[in-house]
Write a structure and sequence with these properties.
- The complex is a heterodimer of chains A (about 110) and B (about 120).
- With about 110 residues, chain A is mainly beta.
- Chain A contains no helices and 11 strands.
- In chain A, β5 and β6 form a beta hairpin.
- Chain B has about 120 residues and is mainly β.
- Chain B has no helices and 10 strands.
- In chain B, strands 1, 3, 4, 8, 9 and 10 form a 6-stranded mixed beta sheet that branches. A 4-stranded antiparallel beta sheet of chain B has the order 2-7-6-5, with no helix packed on it.
- Classes of the chains: A mainly beta (about 110), B mainly beta (about 120).
- At the A-B interface, β4, β5, β9 and β10 of A face β3, β4, β8 and β9 of B.
């Protein structure tokens, strides 16, 4: 597609529920990244993939968070047993292969935990 | 849309003037830097990047300067327009700490252009 597409745009759920956030990267982009952004701050890294391989998950806050990219394209970020502190904007980015390539961001999923 | 400009340093300029946005980065091992523009309700939009083997790079109406000695990055916008109003973030990427993929974002600066 023309840009990184994230769905849903907004997600409201009750505490304790599981949520799955979807990212569809730019066509041909090998690398895919997940970030979380609080109001007034820059995005903070969660995890990233090259193709289907998860290269780094050091930014995931705890084991309730997981991500996958089984076919090297679309990725899903899953949060189990959600808590109110998980409320945030979750952003996905993708880039071409290679070390120094700009990451292009989607418009994010706004997650609200009640 | 959501406001990304809460509690951020603000730079206010007159339309047509040049803008300079500054950023201090954290790690001397970082070797790649990017400037992003973020408007309310949108994701960060790539503006320009620079590698550590350069000290200046120019794009259309924008120039990025890199001073590795003092770990300082700046973004210059020529002939600033109302459409340039947004929050601007610098980001660094380094080959250290076992991670070679993630960007580390600096504190944003809100640019406000007065017509």
């Amino acid at each position: 597609g023309a840009g990184v597409s994230q769905s849903p745009r907004y997600k409201v759920t009750k505490r304790g529920q599981d949520v799955a956030l979807r990212c569809d990267p730019i066509s041909g982009h090998v690398s895919l990244y997940w970030y979380r952004q609080a109001l007034g701050q820059g995005p903070e890294f969660l995890t990233y993939f090259n193709y289907e391989a998860q290269q780094d998950k050091s930014g995931l806050p705890n084991d309730r968070f997981s991500a996958e990219r089984p076919e090297g394209s679309i990725s899903t970020l899953t949060i189990q047993r959600t808590e109110q502190r998980d409320s945030a904007m979750y952003r996905c980015a993708s880039s071409l292969a290679g070390g120094d390539q700009p990451q292009h961001f989607g418009d994010g999923t706004r997650l609200s935990i009640l | 849309g959501e406001s990304v400009g809460l509690h951020l340093p603000t730079l206010s300029v007159q339309e047509g003037d040049n803008s300079i946005i500054n950023c201090a980065y954290s790690n001397s091992a970082s070797d790649y830097f990017i400037w992003y523009k973020q408007e309310s309700g949108k994701g960060p939009q790539f503006i320009i990047d620079i590698r550590s083997n350069m000290d200046k790079r120019q794009g259309q109406r924008v120039t990025v300067l890199l001073n590795k000695t003092v770990k300082h990055l700046s973004l210059q916008i020529a002939a600033t327009q109302p459409g340039d109003s947004a929050v601007y973030f610098c980001a660094e990427k380094g080959n250290y700490g076992g991670s070679q993929g993630n960007l580390i974002f600096g504190k944003g600066t809100k640019l406000s252009v007065k017509p």
